[in-house]
Amino acid sequence: MSKTAKTDRKAKTAPSGYVGMSGAEVLHEMLLEEGVEILFGFPGGTVLPIFDVLYRSPIKFILTRHEQGACHMADGYARSTGRVGVVIATSGPGATNLVTGLATANMDSTPLVALTGQVRSTLIGNDAFQEADITGITRPITKHNFLVKRVEDIGRTIKEAFYIARTGRPGPVVVDIAVDSTVAKLEAEPELTPDLPGYKPATAGNIRQIKLAAEAINAAQRPVLYVGGGVVISGASAELRKLAEKGNIPVTTTLLAMGAIDERSPLAMQMLGMHGSATANYAVQDSDCLVAVGARFDDRVTGRIAEFAPHAKIIHIDIDPSSISKNVVVDIPVVGDARDILGRMLEWIKPADRSAWLAKIEQWKNRHPFKYASEGKIKPQEVVARLGELTGHDAIVATGVGQHQMWTAQFYGWRKPRQIITSGGLGTMGFGCPAAIGAQFGNPGATVIDIDGDGSFCMTMVEVITAARYQQPVKFVVLDNEYLGMVRQWQEMFYGKRYSAVSHPCPEFAKIAEGFGARGMRITERSELDDAIGEMLKHPGPVVLHVLVEPEENVYPMVATGKALHEMDLGKLA
Ligand SMILES: Cc1ncc(C[n+]2csc(CCOP(=O)(O)OP(=O)(O)O)c2C)c(N)n1
User: Fold this and answer.
1) Which of 74, 205, 425, 538 is the most buried (most CB within 10 A)?
2) For residues 241 and 257, is the Cβ–Cβ distance under 8 A?
3) How close is the Cα of 294 to the center of ligand 1, in Å?
4) How far apart are CA 537 and CA 80, in angstroms?
């Protein structure tokens, strides 16, 4: 599609190349060349020339109700498809509304390109109307950013932005473009070849390091694979599975890597960390060789760092050299693409009988599974578990941030990579609703569910209007515990139950949904749950299902701040 569009346009406007094209037209050509099929955003004065070109573009444009929503949609699209998400906003408030979305994408390594309008190049720095220093504001929360002031630089910069966003450790790139450069016309052929002498992302791992790592694994009796989002991003799930099976190595995944291994595998130990499975946490603490792949030893994963995996030799496979030994001192670093490295490591891994280790793991699994009591009010965990079963564990699932996010990770039953769309690093409430819509745009025909908390949903639920307008059949399941639940849990456990600013009475979400053009449903009883989920899944359009759940349910296990992983509070799982 993009090739034809380019040829047509060139035939009409610039038979000899780009000369005569406006900056906005060149930008559009570059988007087509990059294969962009969908753009999320919101217009305004400084991006009018770009929107004028979009008026006759084959690129689908999704007008959101808030720029934050657009950024999270581009993020959900990117995470669920592996392609670069693209978002556009105007200068000043439009661009500042992207900030949370950019920081979210940056923390979780999502490839995004954000195009922002900027005031005229001659006015920059003058406090012009709707001027904000977006390159200054976003420098620490993006992989890279550019300010473009000349029409000659637009094409090359866009190419560079896409290249940086998707290569190495992916991330968001902002291109801030002065409006006059989008209006000006090219008088000479522009240089379009990316010129990034300082940017050399590693891909292949060093073979010596790979062999050293394989030898350490072969020598280990209690190895554990600790797998992070990098494995999903690099498409290394098949290599991971082969390696785990060949070496009989149990696997735990971070929140961002749920589905990197099918949880039905006997080697799968589910999530680790603050609310991870007892099995995964005990296994890490007991391990003599911890193999971290595409993970960054986040404090929510490690607990008290001085006592993290105290008996283990630590191998760290990561594409980002700055991640190595950042939080935990690593014995054998291997820098490069996880898929390439795991694929090559496979031939050095010796099949090993680790039955004693696996038996111990099986024992932990049997003793301390994630569980809840199905009594009294509807339990949030059972809503997640029933959603898993009734969707055949095959849906793409987005979440907000809080208890519901942890229960989703614990109880959905993950089968494949790119199934979970959640804000891990930044922990952005409000991510779920728009991210789910973005994922649905990228996966037409797939079942996409946002399992949300009432607090998180309130932050961005206005985008249900976007889902309804563009007929995206996303299912929004709001687990309403009438509290900002995760904060309430901390106040219960660590602040003597002094509930400060966590009571969160909710509006009638089902009525709001109807007003927004979606279907609205509300349930309060366990007996209604399966029918409601069934009806929701059958409905061809977007649905908001408001579920009133037990208000004071807690997430277990819990590793309190300052505790080591094995010191977790098992709560009712004990
Ligand atoms: C934008 C933002 N503001 C504040 C927080 C701090 N925070 C983390 S969890 C949480 C409560 C979330 O409540 P809700 O969405 O209802 O989910 P629940 O924990 O009840 O499942 C808060 C306030 C955050 N993560 N993000």
Assistant:
1) 74
2) no
3) 26
4) 20
Partnered with residue 293 across adjacent β-strands are: 227, 317
Distance 459 CA to ligand 1 centre (A): 10
**Ligand 1 centre distance from Cα of residue 515 (Å):** 25
- Residue with the smallest CA separation from ligand 1 atom 16 is 455
If you measure from the C-alpha of residue 98 to the centroid of ligand 1, how many angstroms do you get, rounded to a whole number?
Answer: 19
Question: Cα of 488 to ligand 1 centre, how many Å?
Answer: 10
Residue 459 CA: nearest ligand 1 atom is 1
pTM metric for this prediction = 0.96
Q: Which atom of ligand 1 is nearest to the CA of 405?
A: 21
The Cβ of residue 356 has, within 10 Å, a number of other Cβ atoms equal to 10
Which pLDDT tens digits describe the chain residue by residue (574 residues)? 333 344 444 434 444 599 999 999 999 999 999 999 999 999 999 999 999 999 999 999 999 999 999 999 999 999 999 999 999 999 999 999 999 999 999 999 999 999 999 999 999 999 999 999 999 999 999 999 999 999 999 999 999 999 999 999 999 999 999 999 999 999 999 999 999 999 999 789 999 999 999 999 999 999 999 999 999 999 999 999 999 999 999 999 999 999 999 999 999 999 999 999 999 999 999 999 999 999 999 999 999 999 999 999 999 999 999 999 999 999 999 999 999 999 999 999 999 999 999 999 999 999 999 999 999 999 999 999 999 999 999 999 999 999 999 999 999 999 999 999 999 999 999 999 999 999 999 999 999 999 999 999 999 999 999 999 999 999 999 999 999 999 999 999 999 999 999 999 999 999 999 999 999 999 999 999 999 999 999 999 999 999 999 999 999 999 999 999 999 999 976 6
DSSP for residue 294: S
In sequence order, the 6+-apart residues with CB closer than 8 A to the CB of 149 are 121, 124, 178, 181
Q: Rg for the chain (alpha carbons), in Å?
A: 24
Distance CA 97, CA 104 (A): 13
